[in-house]
């Protein structure tokens, strides 16, 4: 993947709709960028590209951007679409130093996470959406961290939307987590490994009450994974709006 070209594409598309570009760091010549747009009362955070062997997330965000997804009334968006540019360039999970960024949000040893976490500190979001992929799954699944009112109806909307594209993951245990319903992991607001915080736990700890981490199966065709992420994002927007 040409990551410089990918970032330029995000720059161009966000600029076209009047988003504000913010650079919170750089690594190996790649800018670490985020975009802000909208002035709604609800505050939404979106991220992708955390793992370099998971290209469907950034590509789905780019397609959604071109289709006008990030312009609904009532939301102030913050979007970080390429969290791990060196990993994407190398098509590997970790960054160029062999570090898994999604386990570094407590220690903050890596430049990428140190800059990102510092930039996020003190921010406040009503919901967060993160796009990932999984080499071990055969269907779509997601993690939900919910510090507010339990709302099982959200699962029906998300699973129905994604089901138009691919099946929900059928296993009863996914990544060592029991599922609540097929493809739905209802995760507590604590990390699986105390010293290795992922982004979703960090966001919860700084006050984000609701997050969804979407996972598509890496074994599926890329375009199918992109479409599944887009379906999940559109359904999540419906359940996150008041």
UniProtKB/TrEMBL annotation:
This is M14 family metallocarboxypeptidase. GO terms for biological process: proteolysis. Gene3D superfamilies: Zn peptidases. Coiled coil: none annotated. Residues 1-240 form the Peptidase M14 domain. PROSITE patterns: PEPTIDASE_M14. The active site is at residue 215. It comes from Sulfuriroseicoccus oceanibius. Keywords: Carboxypeptidase, Hydrolase, Metal-binding, Protease, Zinc. InterPro entries: AstE_AspA_cat (IPR055438), Peptidase_M14 (IPR000834). Belongs to the peptidase M14 family. One of its GO terms (molecular function) is hydrolase activity, acting on ester bonds. Its cofactor is Zn(2+). It comes from the Bacteria.
